[in-house]
Amino acid sequence: MNSTSIFRYVLLWIVLSLVIGLLSGAASAIFLIALNWATNYRESHIWIIAFLPIAGFVIGWSYYRFGENSVKGNNLLLDELYKTEKPIPLRMTPLVLLGTVLTHLFGGSAGREGTAVQMGGSLADQLTKYFKVDPADRRIILIAGVSGGFASVFGTPLAGAIFALEWMLHRKIRWKSVFPAFLTAFVANWVCASLFGVGHTHYLVDLVPPHTLINLLWIIPAGIAFGLSGRLFAQSNHFFSHLFSNYISYPPLRPVIGGLVIAGIVYISDSTTYIGLGIPRIVEAFETPLPWYDWLVKTGLTSFTLGAGFKGGEVTPLFFTGATLGNALSSWIPLPLALLAGMGFVGVFSGATNTPLACTVMGMELFGYESGIFLGIACLIAYLFSGKSSIYSSQNLDKKFHLYPAEGIFKTSEKPTSKKDR
């Protein structure tokens, strides 16, 4: 590449990254403000959860009537990255924004990353209407949109960029995507945090033990548990999604039935601990022992909510699942409670999304770089033990190596296609 080509590349992606960062950061800020309002209103007006089935019908009917392929959510972004067939519809942004806010307002159990990522990707892809780009450059635009959405919604610009690259280009990261991904992530995070003044939750890992052999060995059983939990979360999501689609043919009716069940569970349990984002419980997981079953309840309720057709993300519930699982493991594993909660926070996320590098960096951004060794090993082991599974059904895992506890050997999910491959 000559100097002229480098100059054009840098100029083009500075302009596009600034625009995408502004759009995705502003969208995340508006979304987080609305989500905070919805959460506070629900918690002070618990009776509103009784109307979750009605909210479910509104969400289901909106996607059925206007959504078209937007109903595929994050999987649509992955499909377009691999195939680049059709533009991401702009309608995805208002639909997922409205659907997620309604889900949280009326008591569904869901996250927020999916919404931010979909808005970032949808808004970014609209630029292809005004800039003449080839399929390769369009892929970079989608990566930048995902990077901006993820970075701004969690306040983790480094992890946001790495997540977009690792998630969308599993084991095939191209150097041309790196600069736009990182620049967009930092711009989007600045727009959300500084321009709009939207804050993010802080977690404290106050004690990191020395890197002795015995302490590092204790990461192995914890990482295995996190990987298997991530696999359970992913497979539960797919199970409930298939269950609802197989037995309820009219899509708008699925969240109605799901809403009735969820509202009934909240009424019977007389607890709102496991609905919404669950951030207060996540914070508690770093501070005090919690019931051992918290992670299991959140896994089931979130999988059921999203499988029924409600909108939101999976990542914050994964944080909840991982942090509370790490909290529970502190009864058997002699590592500090907060550190185990932090390891689970990112470890289960790593196993369910197959992004160990992004999860490690995210943990260091959130908890401090002192815990990096523990976080990195936990994320890698969780990634290996999660098997060939993902919360994103369209994620390309053909070349993923994974480790099965029952067999104790490395396995690759890619089948040999020729003698040379063998």
From TrEMBL:
Topology term for the membrane: Multi-pass membrane protein
Alphabetical keyword list: Membrane, Transmembrane, Transmembrane helix
- Report which superkingdom the organism of origin falls in: Bacteria
* Cell compartments where the protein resides: Membrane
Q: Name one GO cellular component term.
A: membrane
| TM helices/strands, residue ranges | 6-34, 46-64, 140-165, 177-196, 216-234, 255-275, 325-346, 366-385
**What is the first-listed, main subcellular location in coarse terms?**
membrane
Keyword set includes Membrane:
yes
Q: A single GO molecular function, which one?
A: chloride transmembrane transporter activity
InterPro entries, per this entry?
A: Cl-channel_core (IPR014743), ClC (IPR001807), ClC-type_chloride_channel (IPR050368)
Please give the PANTHER family that the UniProt record associates with this protein.
CHLORIDE CHANNEL PROTEIN CLC-E (PTHR43427), CHLORIDE TRANSPORTER (PTHR43427:SF12)
What is this protein's name? Answer: H+/Cl-antiporter ClcA
**Originating organism:** Algoriphagus yeomjeoni
